[in-house]
Amino acid sequence: MSKPPHDSPDEYRLIVLRREIAAAEATLLALQAAIQDARSEQGLVAVRDARVENERLTAQNLVVTQAAENAHAALEVALQAAQTDALTGLSNREVLWDRLAHDLALARRHNHLLAIYFLDVNDFKQVNDEHGHAVGDLLLQHVARVLMATVRASDTVCRIGGDEFVVLVATHRREDAEAVAGKIAQALAAPCMLAGHPMSVSASIGCSVFPDDGESPGVLVHKADEAMYRLKRAHARRA
User: Secondary structure of 7-36 in the HEC alphabet?
Assistant: First the structure.
């Protein structure tokens, strides 16, 4: 804004100040009007509606979050059930092949041996026939507990069906692999009491060792299975 030619500097500053005051008063009036509008019934209704909508959205978000958490928990339970033997709580046949592939990869990487034990409980049918299937189930649960207690936490124990189990043990020497089989047999042979029946469990345990007996999961399990059946037949001839 240019200064009028006949105004003194003081008069000019006064004019500018009056205009600034007028602008500030106009702004203040606009703010007061907005505050009054917000305090009016219409404004209060708008605030209340906004609060109700916010509460509705918050509740809906909680419901959706809980539903997602429930679905995730159900999925975890279903996945665990699909990978677990219901009777013994051990990993099942499906998990065996994944763990075997994983353990073989580690054995190759770290240049150590992997022992695969195929185990079948001797005279299991006789236990079922003499004492009933409920006692037979207790026997299988006992075998599972013994196997888990005998090997390391890093080793794998699976029930693959019936009275058959597979154990995977990483080791450094062939002699150590053979010693583990003896350790398992000795632990199973310890007397136990199942539903009031004293028992001593024996098992036929076949073993194959990576890489001496093969390098693929199928070949190693097959060779351990064959070794187990040779021992099973020898046990049957002695019985």
Answer: CCHHHHHHHHHHHHHHHHHHHHHHHHHHHH
Q: What single DSSP character describes residue 202?
A: -
The separation between CA 164 and the C-alpha centre of its own chain, rounded to angstroms, equals 25
pTM above 0.70, yes or no: no
- Cβ neighbours of residue 101 under 8 Å, at least 6 residues apart? 217
Minimal CA–CA distance to 213: which of 158, 157, 174? 174
Considering the candidates 163, 176, 213, 225, report the single residue annotated as catalytic. 163
Decide: 107 and 152 in contact? Cβ < 8 Å: no
**What CATH number is associated with residue 212?**
3.30.70.270
Q: Does residue 232 fall inside a structural domain?
A: yes
Instruction: Give the SS3 label for residue 156.
Output: strand
**Angle, helix 174-189 to helix 133-150, in steps of 10 degrees:** 140
Whether residue 163 lies in the annotated active site: yes
**Residue 161 maps to a domain:** yes
Structurally, the chain folds into a number of domains equal to 1
| H-helix segments, the chain | 9-39, 41-83, 93-110, 124-131, 133-150, 174-189, 217-238
Q: Provide the residue range defining the domain that includes 155.
A: 93-238
Q: Which residues of the chain have a pLDDT value below 70?
A: 1-7, 37-47, 64-65, 67-81, 239
